[in-house]
Amino acid sequence: MSLSDFLARFSVVEELIKRREGFFKNLKEQKRLRTYFINFNIAIIVFSAVYGATMGVYPGGLQVFYDAVKIPMLLLISLYVTVPSYYVLSSLFGGECSFSQMVILLLSSLTVMSTVLLALVPINLFFILTTANATYSAYAFLVILNVVIFALAGLFALTFLLSGLMTMYSGIGWSPAFLVGSIIFMFVGTQLAWVLRPYFHYYPQFIRPVERNFYVAMIELVIRFLGGLFGFRGID
């Protein structure tokens, strides 16, 4: 594959951003599904890897490579784990979307999420380069900042997914499937993000041993961050 052919695969991103009606039409008529499948996966891997590498700049060294691998893993594993849930739930509520159409629709929403992450790379890099790598409060700030960035990108992905489901289905039977499926995806994604840690400090192995869960860790992180700001003692 030539460089021009590889770059041409990213044209699907402009299609999602500027010509989404055409994409939804092709999806509904089951056209170009194989092309969409390949190109969306490539876009997700490349865009999220760039964002992940940016996260790894804070600790530096091998962590740049680790994070560039972890973020695409996070997005794609979360998607393929939850695809059956979306498909079965939408079918139970009267949806006529095929399994392949559901895969493409979810891939398109994650492509939107990856594109938003890529667009926010300069913002993330700015704070990483201007935040001293010396205190726990600085580390906590960057973790919270990136959680907010991922939440924002995820919101754009869910909005796109909602538009797709409204286009694919004439009734409102898809709405319970959208709500339940999105909640499942959120819990799978956040817990997998915790399993794949660390991101902002170097650890010799690729991931750390599993302990606690994402939500307990975030509560402790926020308490310790606030403790550093306002001078009260957080959780040891």
Q: Can you give a write-up of this model?
A:
It is a single chain. The chain has 236 residues and is mainly α. The protein has one domain (3-230). 76% of the residues lie in helices and 0% in strands. It is built from 10 helices and no strands. It has helices at 3-8, 11-18, 20-28, 33-56, 63-92, 99-119, 121-129, 136-168, 174-195, 214-230. Helix 4 packs across helix 5 (63-92) and helix 5 runs antiparallel to helix 9 (174-195). The longest helix has 33 residues, at 136-168. The relative contact order is 0.13.
Task: Tell me the Rg in angstroms.
Answer: 19 Å
Number of strands: 0
SSE string, helices as H and strands as E: HHHHHHHHHH
Rounded mean pLDDT score: 86
Please tell me what the overall shape is.
globular
Largest sheet: none
Q: Are there runs of 5+ residues with pLDDT below 50, and where?
A: 232-236
Instruction: Give the N-to-C terminal Cα separation.
Output: 53 Å
How many structural domains does the protein architecture include? 1
What percent of residues adopt helix (DSSP H or I)?
A: over 70%
Output the structural class. Answer: mainly alpha
What is this entry, summarized?
With 236 residues, the protein is mostly helical. The protein has one domain (3-230).
